[in-house]
Amino acid sequence: MKFNFKSTYIVVAVVAVIVLLLFGGRMFMILDAGERGVLFKPYTSGLDKENIYGEGFHVIAPWNKMYIYSVREQQRDEPMDVLDKSGLSISVDITVRFNPVFNEIGFLYEQFGINYINVLVIPEVRSTVRQVAGRYTAEEIYSTKRAEVELAIIEETRQVLGKNYIEMKALLIRSINLPEQIKNAIESKLQQEQEALAYEYRLKRETSEAERRRIEAEGIAAYNRIINESLTDKILKQRGIEATTSLSESTNAKVIVIGSGKDGLPLILGNN
Predict the structure, then answer these.
(1) Reported confidence tier of residue 206, pLDDT bands at 50, 70, 90
(2) Strands (DSSP E) found in the chain
(3) pLDDT over threshold 90, residue 137
(4) Which run of H or of E encompasses 222?
(5) What sign for the dihedral angle of Cα 261, 262, 265, 271?
(6) Are 105 and 69 in contact (CB under 8 A)?
(7) 65 DSSP β-pair partners
(8) pLDDT of residue 1
(9) pTM score
(10) pLDDT tens, 147-181?
(11) Which helix (H) or strand (E) element contains residue 194?
């Protein structure tokens, strides 16, 4: 029997085409920018957590499977109700931005799968917000310690997600809503506190000004007392003689009678 090479090539080509049609979608993988892949080998070593596939074209065995993750920064908005320290219900709107750690998506898949956002990220964010809110009163969360509450939520959320292969980029509290009655009561209290602080400031300022004036008056009184005590009759006469001498040296015409003034001081009778 004559062997027909041409027929063999045709058969091989047909088989190859069939294989490509059946398994091509599983053999040839193209990862887009911002994507990473982790390979699962069911018949050999299982999940290959150490080797992460980057962007570009990859060929894998058709019996293996590649799980593809977007490692771009992602954002989720979460409205939620939390309880404050006293059990009061508060509505909070949270925005969290995050992405998987690029070279650890194998571990992420092993523990949380592809749907890690709903399985891991959102539950942990909600849990952390509730835990932090439970340590503060509604007034502190709404106004007096809002920055401290936000910082605690950010730090604790970043820590718990980081332990689970997620890098948190940012967490923002978009709004905090209280029951209208509680909100009005807090705002009224804050306004009264501000008015009390303003009154206390004015009182301190006026008290300080009164003290300044008292010290100034005491200084003037002390000065006058020292001057009065130092101005004896002899000193006054000496000052009078000195003044008269200065006048006598002036070019203006005048008549000075020596010894005719009060206390024997010279008397100036006239000036021109």
Answers:
(1) confident
(2) 28-31, 35-41, 46-53, 56-59, 65-70, 74-83, 89-100, 166-177, 254-257, 267-271
(3) no
(4) helix 180-230
(5) negative
(6) yes
(7) 40
(8) 46
(9) 0.59
(10) 899 999 999 999 999 999 999 999 998 888 886 66
(11) helix 180-230
pLDDT of the residue at 209: 78
Which amino acid is present at 69? Y
3-state secondary structure of 140: helix
Asked whether the beta carbons of 112 and 119 are under 8 A apart, the reply is: yes
Strand, helix or coil for residue 252: coil
Residue position matching structure tokens 């908005």: 77
Helix or strand (DSSP H, E) at 197: helix 180-230
H-type helices in 67-179, by residue range? 105-112, 116, 122-133, 138-139, 146-162
Burial classification of residue 38, based on how many CB atoms lie within 10 Å of its CB (0-12 exposed, 13-18 middle, 19 or more buried): buried
Classify strands 35-41 and 65-70 as parallel, antiparallel or unpaired: antiparallel
Q: Pick the range with the lowest mean pLDDT from 85-99, 166-180, 209-223, 232-246.
A: 232-246
- Residue type at position 163: K
3-state secondary structure of 184: helix
Lowest mean per-residue pLDDT among 19-23, 38-42, 75-79: 19-23
Q: Is 218 helix (H, G, I), strand (E, B) or coil?
A: helix
Q: Tell me: pLDDT of 73 over 70.
A: yes
Q: Which letter, b or e, does each residue of 14-33 get, where b requires 16 or more Cβ atoms within 10 Å of its Cβ?
A: eeeeeeeeeeeeebebebee
DSSP string for residues in 227-251: HHHH--HHHHHHHHHHHHHHHHTSS
Here the tokens at position 39 are 């390979």
